[in-house]
Amino acid sequence: MMARSFSRRRADLRTDASVEQMNQWKREAGEAAAKIVENGMVVGLGSGSTALQFVAALGRRIQQEGLKVIGIPTSDQTAEFARNLRIPLSTLGEHTEVDFDVDGADEIELGTLYLIKGHGGALLREKMVAASSKRMAVISDDSKLVERLGSRFAVPVEVVQFGWQATEKRLQALGSKTTLRMDKEKPFVTDGGNYIIDCAFGPMAKPKEVAQHLDRVTGTVEHGLFLDFVWEAVVCGHKGIQILKRNS
User: Structure pTM?
Assistant: First the structure.
């Protein structure tokens, strides 16, 4: 019951805030995260509208301060955006260890800082960069905060195209309501050439157990439960900038 009432309060915040205000909060969160970046870092560049605000702020620091960094983009879209800002880029193959990764999220669980990610379609590369990072921060507006993951968003699961219908049945057997993600009239295809099946579990009391079950489903490539990756969340909203730390 608490998770549902909390989600309603967050929905009220989204209703009260204009699109312009929400975008301003995203910019402020991105700028706050960019200030953490230090000279010489290898930096993970996340995907999605909020993460791109961080990339834009990082680009400004490079141009204005002469900051020296190397960016590891998590999607083709982010790579193109960063190149236009003249951010030096490399790959996870060339830099297998990332100093600092900054990304957005669809949901952030209070206390644990567990995430649901992947509604932008880049969850595989995002998780690979996160897993290779010494430190990860998530940035968002405060509408993304929830008491339990799954309160508002389904869990994206990236699956191989071959036999995806059989994979979907196995995901349904875990108790999820599944939807193949579409791009107009065709299935959405990730940068890695895979499909995404969105799996609605509802509010999850034990997301680690859900993640373990998803890990064992044949045909899946990766899922959007990001657990034990994030050290801090930079959140902007009605209360201004908040830095939330993960409970130990």
Answer: 0.90
